[in-house]
Design brief:
It holds the Pfam family GGDEF. With 340 residues, this protein is of the alpha+beta class. It is built from 10 helices and 10 strands. The chain has a 5-stranded antiparallel sheet with strand order 2-1-5-4-3, with helices on both faces. Helix 7 (225-232) packs across helix 8.
């Protein structure tokens, strides 16, 4: 073939190469072309511009590439290359940071594959394309940071909700305890721990409503209690009053109700109990009190008024009758008086 024949063919090839170059510029930000036999790596002008270097100003060697990869991304990049060389990947593909002329790093996507082989089938040429994905990676990192921040906020919110829920449950439990205590206090005499008059009244009304048999009402009034206060002081008087329930209780049944009726006055409701039994019990209580030595060797007696409540009786009437009996007992003191 003469030179004249070659010229149009060369022109056609040059035009083709130019077209190819333009097409590569459209789909990538830099092209590299490695000749495995010479070790030379040619890079496109755009490749240099992408990194801020003068076009073709760096040595056209593999070491230039290796020297510009961020040290942290080196192992993964080499591993990706090895996978391709070992035939485990259809092409070399890696993301890594690459050093620019100003010393900063940008994120690149690098994709390459062998394009020529020798007669033994050994690859001799590799063609690669770089893509500047810096903005994309930054956006992804920002998104990851935001996601992590949101997850952190979410965890904090959940922790706070749990804390509040726990605090609320604690507050509810404390409130329930307080309510129970308040209810307890509302029906208890603070000094003796017995039911107070108000609660006893309520219970009596209930008891009467369901009463089917005789019951007894006993009023118990300590004698000359004022003397104890006067002689030993009000605090000692309190101690004596506080000791009364423990002295009476052993003589009572589960169903019997004992309450503090007022100052030094106590009251007993004895269900299913007739007059004689109530008087006998009152005598036992009278003896117990009379035989007890309180603090400071205090002696004490009590007077008792016993009335019987029959089914259908008005409780106020019964109370009045018990009070009348007590009044009579008080004439002598240390005495039990029951209804005739
Ligand atoms: N320490 C103390 N004394 C009380 C309490 N409540 C009432 N008293 C005293 O009980 C005394 C009752 O006096 P009085 O009503 O005169 O009766 P008394 O001295 O027991 O005499 P008689 O009932 O007539 O035998 C008063 O001194 C009250 O101050 C109390 O909670 N603690």
């Amino acid at each position: 073939m003469s030179d004249d024949d070659l010229t149009p063919e060369l022109e056609r090839l040059r035009s083709l190469e130019k077209t190819l170059q333009l097409a590569l510029d459209i789909v990538s930000d830099g092209i590299w072309d490695w000749d495995r036999l010479t070790g030379r790596v040619r890079r496109s002008a755009r490749w240099y511009l992408m990194l801020g270097y003068e076009p073709f100003s760096l040595p056209e060697t593999v070491d230039t590439w290796l020297g510009l990869i961020h040290p942290d991304d080196h192992p993964a990049t080499m591993a990706a290359m090895q996978r391709y060389l070992d035939g485990e990947a259809p092409l070399f593909s890696a993301r890594y940071r690459f050093k620019k002329a100003d010393g900063d790093y940008i994120w690149l996507q690098d994709k390459a594959r062998f394009v020529e082989y020798d007669e033994h089938g050994e690859p001799v040429r590799m063609l690669g394309a770089h893509q500047d994905i810096h903005l994309q990676v930054q956006a992804e990192e920002e998104q990851r940071r935001e996601q992590a921040h949101l997850e952190q906020l979410n965890r904090e919110l959940e922790r706070k909700v749990q804390e509040r829920t726990r605090a609320l449950a604690d507050a509810n439990a404390a409130l329930a305890r307080q309510l129970t205590l308040s209810r307890e206090q509302a029906r208890t005499d603070y000094l003796t721990g017995l039911f107070n008059r108000r609660h006893f009244d309520q219970m009596l009304t209930e008891e009467c409503r369901h009463q089917q048999r005789d019951a007894a009402l006993v009023l118990l009034d300590l004698d000359y209690f004022k003397d104890i206060n006067d002689r030993h002081g009000h605090q000692t008087g309190d101690l004596v009053l506080q000791a009364i329930p423990a002295l009476l209780r052993p003589h009572l049944r589960q169903a019997d109700l004992l309450a503090r009726w007022g100052g030094e006055e106590f009251i007993l409701w004895l269900p299913d109990t007739g007059g004689p039994d109530a008087v006998r019990l009152s005598e036992r209580l009278r003896h117990t009190l009379a035989e007890t030595r309180f603090c400071h060797d205090i002696h004490l007696t009590a007077s008792f008024g016993v009335a019987v409540c029959r089914p259908g009786d008005a409780i106020q009437q019964v109370l009045r009758r018990a009070d009348a009996c007590l009044y009579q007992a008080k004439r002598e003191r240390n005495k039990v008086v029951g209804e005739e």
